[in-house]
Queue: 2 jobs
Job 1
Amino acid sequence: MRPDTPAENVDHNAEAARLERTADRYPEDAEALLLQAAAHLELAGDRPAASSLYDRLLAAQDGLENPFLVRALKAANLWEYGHEAEARAIIEGVRGAAPRDPAPWVIVAEALESHDELEQAQETFTEGARVLLTDVAEPPYSTHPLLFGRHRVRRMLGLAHDDWDVLADTLHSSPVSLDELHDPKRVWSLGSENPAELEAEISRLRAELGTFRAALSRPFPVAVLHWSAGELAELVAGYPSLSSEYPSHEEHLATIEASLRELAASGTPNLGIVSGTVPSYEAFAASEGTSPAEVSLLPQYATTLAARGRAVEWPPQRGAACWCGSGRGYGECHGE
């Protein structure tokens, strides 16, 4: 689907079928493509077909990058068409696994919230925040929806602000405060005949829409290209001219970390790392009609991988393994 295609003009079934065909052609990107296809099927109202795609992904769970995200999406989808018991069981499984990715936490918590399970939603948002944000000085952008959702549910429950609610207020950049956006009494103003109340509600809705648009318009990460030791050795052996770009694997890893830290210090948001493979790179070079030996092709390849959803967030979440593949924690490896 073209980015400028109006949502009301999208044939969601056709788009889902196109994405499935593309996934068959590019199995390395199948997870991201099939998740998009499932989303289109949900929008088309074919929730059983969407569940089938989630099941297809979970059947190959060993190869999934984000299995808990798939499970969370499946649970939310199942609940929407009457499979509450199964959805609840999956949600409990996701919570028990305590994933290090904020997205599954947000999805299952919002599923509970949408079905008026506010206490359980609040507990789920809080569990996610505890797992991901304890002793974290600056919450990554990907965790902001976790804090905002928690703030919203706690406001509906009438709970007093705590430190994470204050942090959510600080991170929120809209001209309308979170307290006002999440005010449970807002629903009454929608039926008001008072022009002042209606005008205030219109302002709040515009602020919310602006926040959603800002989130949706965030570009894919500014991604730095990473090669494993084996892939880099194969790349340089096949294209010796690239040895000037990659004198050694150790220097390559050090350059990645230094580049990302420099970008972060300059205020560049949404940083990530993409891992390349020689066959994928050669195929990309062929599609561009360029030799893989061209140094200028490397950043283009990184950008393409990021656009396909292949980037992993940098810096890694607290306690996560280092991006370099050493198996050590990031704080004990390149995060030292």
Note: The first helix runs from residue 12 to 25.
Job 2
Amino acid sequence: MRPLKTKYKWLIWSIIAILLAGFLMMPLPLYSESPGISVGLKNFIKVDNKKPNFKGDYSLTAISLSQLTGLGALITLTNPHADFMTKDQVMAGATSSEEQKIDKIDMDTAFNNAKAVALKKAGIDYKENFKGVYVRSLQPNSKFKKDLKIGDMITKINGEKQASVTDFQSTIRNHKLGDPITITYSRNNKQYNSTHPTVSLGGANAKIPGIGILLIDHTTISTKPKITADMGKIGGPSGGLMFSLELYEALSNNNLAQGRLISGTGTIDREGNVGEIGGIDKKVISAGESGSKIFFAPYLKVPDKYLKYEEKHQTNYQLAKKTAKKYEPQLKVVPVSNFQQALDYLEAHPVKEENK
């Protein structure tokens, strides 16, 4: 007969094994941020229902975010290109569904901005059509928060369409704090009306009336040739610069890519200014692994005393250059503050020069 103590040992080890297996498979409130895809934009963009027709391509780089299990956390610890992120850092208080809507809005806005920049530079006329404003987030004091949801589009104020986002804001600010205001908004192709008092915007704008939303204007661009994009599940604003380069190349036939796969990242506004983004070190890794030799990185002059607010206490360009030097030395990181600087670099550095 086996001693009683031996039986208990097996029972204890069995319990430990079950608990360990449970931990390894249990979802944690942690996420892994790691290098994602780097893929040419010809796969997503069409001009007059056709892929852009030029040699080479401009590549959009992305990060990969995944919720971790215990096993995933252990794997992330061994990956020099992955970082841990909390749920609050990833979602910023939004649900998964809301975050997807925000990413889609940001992507659409980036693409529209890129279209405007590329068309203007190519000398092609276009028409902007203001449709309304998207709800990106809601203030805690907003009286509309029980009716509105992230992703809703507000189309009218007091039954009247607005001509621009400036008119939209001015119409609201013509009211006094606490005045009732009626908004018309759409959700899932259905329209709704909601009436509530205006509230204070808070902070330095405490005396300014508002409806308590963070908004993004929804403006479409009409032009010939017709330009469309189907980005699938890719979202966010960071593809703006590369969108504008891809579209300009397709519209102008200037042959700047010259057969090269050119990568980069950065937001873009209607004036062509390039803004910083998150996770640029992961995007450098993705670009290098894709075969790119050029990587455009947003360049922002930041006094040393403000570097503590930057990701990993470095500007986008500093972090990208450091990452490339360590892991992807064949990748030339090019700092750009605007769209024109990216064009200037490509014009000044043709393929023959790079091959010397």
Note: The mean pLDDT is 90.
